[in-house]
Every structure is written in structure tokens, then in C-alpha cells.
Amino acid sequence: MQRILLLECGPYGRQSRGSRLAQELVERLRERHPQAQLVERDLASEPLPALHAAYADALVAQAPGDDPALRLSEQLIGELENSDCLVIATPMHNFTVPAALKLWIDYVLRIGRSFAATESGKVGLLADRPTFVVVSSGGFYRGEQARQPDFLTPYLRHVLSTIGIHDLEFVHLQGLVRGQEHAETMLAQAREQLAFNPYLAAQGEYS
Ligand SMILES: Cc1cc2nc3c(=O)[nH]c(=O)nc-3n(C[C@H](O)[C@H](O)[C@H](O)COP(=O)(O)O)c2cc1C
């Protein structure tokens, strides 16, 4: 593992429980891969610009990568190409990904660049890599206590697989409105789950 890309997507920065877990996860990865560099992109505190017509035109026309309208898209795709591990810390906002992450998706999923359109459907053009998604939410969307739909997990899974990223582990920190004690229980369960992840397993096994 040479380079880890961490996407922070929530408005609370380091105060976010999801972000804390993602940072912990990165630390554990770096214990196993001390040479691994960390590239961090905070999509909430440094939001990407809204899409403009020039970008939409260039995307639809499959303009060459050196088109100035594609500069940011190229930069973001380049960050992904230059990393071999992806960690996403995202809250659930209105049953799906927050707007900050949606914009990143709109710059990174580009026909003819990060995926190809074929007769049998879209095929990813980026290399697969271990990917962790920490989802935090005020309420519940999985399990017996679920009282709302989950458009985040299947959506993000589909988005990432569209560009070739299939090696995914989701971690869910649900019900965070219930207070600190509940949050600590969720964090402990998440750590237990992650202990079984092959990339976080005992040193040497998958390094
Ligand atoms: C605009 C907005 C929309 C939200 N929508 C949902 C939602 O649909 N479902 C839910 O369970 N929580 C929702 N929440 C609560 C957040 O998911 C929660 O505050 C956050 O994930 C807390 O986690 P953190 O400590 O990691 O930041 C919403 C919060 C905001 C600000």
C-alpha cells in the first residue's frame, strides 16, 4: 500500500464520529504500511465548485483530458489513480450522500475516462483497491430499528463499481442522535467489524 486517499464529507470535521473512526482506520493501515502516504481531501470545508455548462459540455462531448473545463475533474481522477486505498467518511444526508460528496462523484465519474460505455453496460476504467466507507447517521436505516430507507449504501456501491472499485467495506455508525454512550457502543461495534477486514488483519498476512 503506497498511498491512501481519505475523503472527508461531513460538516463537523474532526468532531464527527465518522471522521474519528476513519482517522483511526487510516492509522491502523499506516501501522501495517508505514511507507504509505496519506492524501486528505475535505469536501465539506473546501467544497468543490458547482458544475458549470463548460464542464457539462466537455463531459458529454468526451472532450480530451487537456480541455481546461476538465482540469478539476482530471485532478480528482488523478488523485484516485495515484492512490491504492480509498477511505470515505460520510454522513447520511436525507437518506443518501451529502451534496459535497455528490459533487465529487459528478467530477470523477466521466464517460470515456473513469468508465467506458459498452453494449453490456458501463465498465470501470480505474484499478480496484481496498476501500472503506464509514457512514454516520442520526437515525437507523438498517436492522430492526430502521425507520428510513437507505439510498446511500446501494448508491455509493454502484457509483464506485461503475469506475472499477469493487473491494468495499461499509461501516455503519447509526443512531448517533442518541448521545455519547450510544455513539461509543456503535464505535466499538465498528472496530470489532473492522478487526475482521483482511487489510487490517495481523501484520504480514496481506501486506
Ligand atoms: C442536512 C442533514 C440531513 C440529514 N439527514 C439524515 C438522514 O436522512 N438520516 C439520518 O439518519 N440522519 C440524517 N442527518 C443526521 C446526520 O447523519 C448526523 O448528524 C451525522 O451523521 C452525525 O455523524 P457524525 O458525528 O459522524 O458527524 C442529517 C443531518 C443533516 C445536517
UniProtKB/TrEMBL annotation:
Co-factor requirement: FMN
UniProtKB keywords: Flavoprotein, FMN, NAD, Oxidoreductase
Oxidoreductase keyword on record: yes
GO molecular function: electron transfer activity; FMN binding; oxidoreductase activity, acting on NAD(P)H as acceptor; oxidoreductase activity, acting on NAD(P)H, quinone or similar compound as acceptor
Top EC class of this enzyme: oxidoreductase
Cofactor note: Binds 1 FMN per subunit.
Residues that bind FMN: 136-139
Catalytic activity: N,N-dimethyl-1,4-phenylenediamine + anthranilate + 2 NAD(+) = 2-(4-dimethylaminophenyl)diazenylbenzoate + 2 NADH + 2 H(+); 2 a quinone + NADH + H(+) = 2 a 1,4-benzosemiquinone + NAD(+)
Pfam families reported for this sequence: Flavodoxin_2 (PF02525)
Residue intervals of the Flavodoxin-like fold domain: 3-194
Entry EC no(s): 1.6.5.-, 1.7.1.17
HAMAP family cross-referenced by the UniProt entry: Azoreductase_type1
Assembly notes: Homodimer.
Similarity field: Belongs to the azoreductase type 1 family.
Role noted for this protein: Also exhibits azoreductase activity. Catalyzes the reductive cleavage of the azo bond in aromatic azo compounds to the corresponding amines. Quinone reductase that provides resistance to thiol-specific stress caused by electrophilic quinones.
Name assigned to this protein: FMN dependent NADH:quinone oxidoreductase
Annotated source species: Pseudomonas berkeleyensis
